[in-house]
Amino acid sequence: MTDLFLAIDGGSQSTKVSVIDQLGVVHASASVPLRPYELGPNGRAVHPDDDLWDTLVGAARAALASFAAAGGETSGIVAVGLCGIRFCRALVGSDGRLVEPVLSWMDARVSRPLSPVPAEVTLVASAGGYLAARLTGVRRDSAASYQGMWPIDPATRQWSTAPTELDRTGMPLELLPSLVDPGELLGEVLPAVSSETGIPAGLPVYATGNDKAVEALGSGLVRGGSVLLSLGTYIAAMTVGRELVEGDDRFWVNAAAVPGRYLYESAGIRRGMWTVSWLRQLVSAALPDTTDPAAIQSWLEVGAAAVPPGCGGLFTVPDWLAPGHAPYRRGAILGLDGSHQAAHLYRSLLEGILMTMHGHTQALEAALGLSPGRLVLSGGGSRSALMSQIAADLFNRPVERSAVSDAAGLGAAICAAVGHGSYPDFESAVAAMVRSGTDVLPDPGSAERYADIVPVYAEITGFTDPLFQRLNGFGAESAERGG
After folding, report:
1. Are 93 and 174 in contact (CB under 8 A)?
2. Structural domain boundaries of the chain?
3. Torsion angle, CA of 242/244/249/250, rounded to 10 degrees?
């Protein structure tokens, strides 16, 4: 009998929990959607109440109930892999509970120093670090979960003791969790937590990494050469390597989910596939007989598949949440006329996402000296046959759709498998647990059409940026200073 692992994947739109065996087979899975962010002035965006924990509890109970209903025995589950949303900030009190709601990665405060520190705070951690403390009672987190406004030394993967880092981040070292590498032990599930979640008490919980790094691992990226296009709430292209190189405006570097390796990540699209969900909800009024998201999605896919590349001159800039380097930017749909239907809008949004990421991916590959090679699609967008085909046509190269819908969950299970000793290293675990996905080949005619469209699309923000700067009170001078 193979070992079984409980994979916890905390994502930006939902928390997923799966039971996965050491061959990568998913035996049961459940997902609980997160509640909408609470938005407020000055860039406030928080997860309401204790939503990250509540959805973990709900997803764990549902997944384990499904596993038991199928005849599974929880005694066969040997370890837990825990993955949380990156760039969040949790402030925890002495009772292990939140002092205030978790700050989303979209909250403007996560890019600023923590000041002042509320007196009742005893732990400042990532989303994963907070969940680890709730599960195990131990103040320990993955070193691969920290980047940005945290005093992390990327070379040592430990907290920096430089006084300048305290000044930069506002985070006293005594409030931070201890750090371990992916695959190392965080702690064991507490009896009280077992009663609440259904997860067996005493199970070891192993560190993974931030959600994008774990997704890359679950997609099979353990060495360089391939590029993963992650089609989730935040869309980015990424690859892995062994060198801690200096990033630039084309890419940045954070820790991979394999100790001592790094994730090289392109610029991205914030609220990427969230925007697709937003459009689906808008056009659902055109289908009065159903409110089923899957049915609406299918209707849009069928209609958009009949729309030719370029959507009859319709172009979409998918910045429903402005990128950090251009805070004045907004989403835009250009070229509308009376002939356009919902299917045109849908396809144009998919094209806008993929044309934007085509430029970001080319910049990433050029910066790293990579020749265009294997392109893997993961995340919710990879489940769309149409989006996968547009990607193959637009990039004009074969693309591989990930074999699993939750690559981050599989990556969490891989970390647990290595930590438990089911495999001696990450390479052998990935070889055994990650299966090849479906290849999608470019259509020559569509690829030729996109070769003409992409250069035109690349010029659009040069025209729209000055307009949005004026509309949002950003003059050219402030834009040059970074807004």
Report:
1. no
2. 4-213, 221-401+443-483
3. -10
Which residue's structure tokens are 């305290």?
166
Architecture per CATH, domain 221-401+443-483, reads as 2-Layer Sandwich (3.30)
pLDDT in tens, 392-417: 999 999 999 988 888 999 999 999 99
Among candidate residues 408, 88, 162, the one with its CA nearest the CA of residue 263? 408
- The neighbouring-strand residues paired with 371 are none
Cross-strand pairs, 227: 375
Residue 477 in this model has a pLDDT that exceeds 70: no
4-213: CATH class: alpha beta
Q: Each residue of 399-417: b (16+ CB within 10 Å) or e?
A: bbbbbbbbbbbbbbbbbbb
Q: How far is CA 60 from CA 64, 87, 359, 387, in A?
A: 6, 23, 39, 31
- Evaluate whether 4-213 and 221-401+443-483 have a shared fold: yes
Task: Tell me the pLDDT band of 296, cut-offs 50, 70 and 90.
Answer: confident
